[in-house]
Amino acid sequence: MGTSYQPPYTLTPRVLALVADIGEALGQLTGRAGSPTPPTLRRGNRLRSIQASLAIENNSLTLEQVTAVIAGKRVLGPPKEIQEVRNAFAAYEAMPAWKPWSSKDLLTAHKLLMSGLVDHPGRFRTTGVGIAQGKKIVHLAPPAARVPGLMNELLNWLKNTDAHPLIASCVFHYEFEFIHPFSDGNGRMGRLWQTLILSRWKPLLAWVPVETVIRERQAEYYAALATSDRAGNSTAFIEFLLSAQLQALHEASATDQVGDQVSDQVKALLKCLAAQPLTALACMKKLRLAHRPTFRKNYLQPALEAGLIERTLPDKPNSSLQKYRLRQK
To answer: Is beta strand 130-133 parallel, antiparallel or unpaired with respect to 136-140?
Structure first.
């Protein structure tokens, strides 16, 4: 116990390069927005964060359904999954009042997030737990009796560390998942708490949905956890999470260049194209759309007409090699 505890990790050249790139991307986004938390980023991105974080935990509700639940509309879906959405929204909304290093706030957050879903929300686990993939146990968490002490050490380290907030948030996320302090909800709590830590450093990061990138790269997320477990340090997990944060900032930047008048469908398409040009079919796959006319009418045509995207082969609009890319402004 005390402040001498030091979680093991290494500052690799890749970690340092990613921290620098994230700083640059943040500067560009904040500078263009003219405000640390532009309203166009807020509500839509908050709902994306919630939907993606819960989807990682096998919640089947779509972004449209999540939006409807939060708007108070009736949604056909499993009651447990609807409860998960309501709880997550309440937790993310309460986040600004919490201190990242406070054990009391951590337990309060878990109670909000897991109320009605587990027997003892807001309490550390009292039994042993192992994390399984299929029939194989991939991680055996520390004994329950050690959890309060380990969490105190980790929270004290977080309060007193000189590590850059980007790195400290990743280290905390890894150590939290390793300790696995709760009977359930550890994944979504780890992602929520990392967002809280980052938002204390840069308020804009409360509204950048890194969870959507983690959801897209879910296999990498678990692989990085496993690699760090084997290595006995969080370096691989830090590299993964920083790369996800950078990707989320690039995607937020692409969608933030358009105003409130642009539909959520068009913003979703712009986000798809943030990394690289894609064919219509590849876009539909990423957006999980099966109906081509809907895609053309609600996504592709409005984005083309607004001058937000362009064809890679403008002289051959019907070419089988046709791709779409963001238009540089």
So the answer is: antiparallel
3-state class of 140 per DSSP?
strand
**Domain total in the chain:** 2
Q: Which of 227, 256, 285 is the last residue of a domain?
A: 256
* pLDDT band per the 50, 70, 90 thresholds, residue 38: low
Element (H, E) at 314: none
CA Rg value for the chain: 21
Amino acid (one-letter) located at 216: E
pLDDT band, very low/low/confident/very high, at 255 (cuts 50, 70, 90): low
Instruction: Give the single-character DSSP code of 278.
Output: B
Q: Is 261 helix (H, G, I), strand (E, B) or coil?
A: coil
| Spatial CB neighbours of 185, under 8 Å, sequence gap ≥ 6 | 110, 113, 114, 117, 118, 121
Residues 105-140 have pLDDT tens digits of: 999 999 999 999 999 999 999 998 877 777 777 677
Look up tokens 């409005």; give the residue. Answer: 302
Quote the CA–CA distance of 235 and 190 in Å, as a whole number. 17
* Residue-wise pLDDT tens digits, 173-220: 999 999 999 999 999 999 999 999 999 999 989 989 999 999 989 999
Do 100 and 147 lie in one domain? The reply is yes
- Which pTM was predicted? 0.78
3-state secondary structure of 107: helix
Report the alpha-carbon distance of residue 44 to residue 50 in Å, rounded: 10
In sequence order, the 6+-apart residues with CB closer than 8 A to the CB of 266 are 258, 299, 302, 303, 306, 308
Question: Domain of 243?
Answer: 13-256
Q: Which two tokens stand for residue 56?
A: 């990682």
User: For residue 316, what is the DSSP state?
Assistant: -
The pLDDT assigned to 57 comes to 93
Q: Say how far residue 228 (Cα) sits from the centre of its chain.
A: 19
Note whether 314 and 196 are same-domain residues. Answer: no
